[in-house]
Write a structure and sequence with these properties.
By secondary structure, the protein is mostly helical. It is 75% helix and 5% strand. It is elongated and about 65 Å long. The two termini are 15 Å apart.
Length: 167
């Protein structure tokens, strides 16, 4: 298994292991577990930094001995395809999020006299009523889309390398 594939495997597993508990708690108690986000991010940064440092040192010693090939065009193609697929997934999830948010936001009509002030123009208005728990839930949903997009990126890299190595 090469350097890039090892990185992809570890990133995929680390993101899943760190953010699965985060989303489990944040979707159950959206407001109470906002601080867990910072713990999850710090844990992910530490995990990835330690692994990448160890992997880079190990791979450098292998490359110096001549046992591992340098990155080539195929590696670049795999990363480009993974980025493209991840971008499509993120775009689709953001569009679904936007549509769901537009349809589910409670809107209350306000009479013209309630919003009319001295010297203000006469317009019909709407009041958007979103609680903080709903706002945090929607923020977590869009963040979940970003996490799923990253999992798609690393999963596509893993699948590409596994497909190549298996024939």
């Amino acid at each position: 298994m090469g350097f890039i594939e090892k990185n992809a495997w570890f990133c995929f597993v680390a993101i899943f292991v760190v953010f699965a508990p985060y989303f489990y708690f944040s979707f159950q108690y959206p407001v109470e577990h906002v601080s867990i986000f910072f713990i999850a991010v710090i844990a992910l940064v530490i995990l990835l930094a330690v692994f990448h440092a160890i992997n880079a040192i190990a791979t450098k010693s292998i490359r110096e001995s001549g046992g591992a090939p340098q990155a080539d065009e195929l590696d670049d193609q795999i990363e480009l395809r993974a980025s493209k697929c991840s971008g499509f997934v993120l775009t689709a999830l953001v569009l679904v999020w936007c549509l769901a948010a537009m349809w589910s936001v409670p809107v209350e009509s306000v009479s013209n006299t309630a919003i009319q002030q001295e010297g203000a123009a006469s317009i019909d208005g709407f009041v958007f009523a979103i609680t903080s728990a709903e706002a945090v839930l929607w923020i977590n949903l869009i963040f979940a889309g970003i996490v799923v997009s990253n999992l798609t990126y690393y999963g596509k890299i893993i699948a590409s390398y596994r497909g190549i190595s298996n024939g």
